[in-house]
Amino acid sequence: RINLKLTNVNFQFGGVAIVGLAVWALLDKVPWIGELVGNDLLTGAIYVLLAGGIIVAIISFFGCIGASREVKCMLLTYFIIVFLLFVTMLIGGVLAYVFREKLVDTLQREMSSSMRVYDSRKSVREAWDTTQSTLHCCGVSGWRDWGSLGLNVPQSCCREIQPGQRFNCNAGPDTVNPSNAYLEGCINGTQIYMQKHATIMGGAGIAVACLMV
Question: What are the disulfide bonds (predicted)?
Fold first, then answer.
């Protein structure tokens, strides 16, 4: 009985940790940047792990009660649900790692494709603005990418003076003021950013799944 209680306490900590990491990833603009790569695998994995973490924490609590009172029906239900949650957490972790591997092959193509609909799709525009302002970059390979598509350099490519206020770095068609603009492309920063989050979420999901074995 004591061993089962300790196991459930570990499950609870694992579930809470997964929920915390998933919320952090969602608040850390992963869904926005994911819009640029044309792949929802990582965002989907985060939501799977978030749901799984919440259920693990709740079920572990009832598992403690079942172990304390030795309610056989509750314990049987608990073990079935734990097995299903193990599969869920494992799937979430694997999805994150699959995304990590696919990212390298498709990143440049998908980011370049999304630039073409910057003006016409609000979600893409917000994703690009968030990416450029967060990672301090501009375009895929550099700021000239916007001009090559016949688009003006977005304001999000301009350096920040203070929160909510940016320089006007657009000096004319195909021209920026280099001292007021982010000149480097976003592809390297985006790849590192997304792979970091995919590694953390994938590792956490698989670790909690192993804890449940």
Answer: 137-169, 138-158
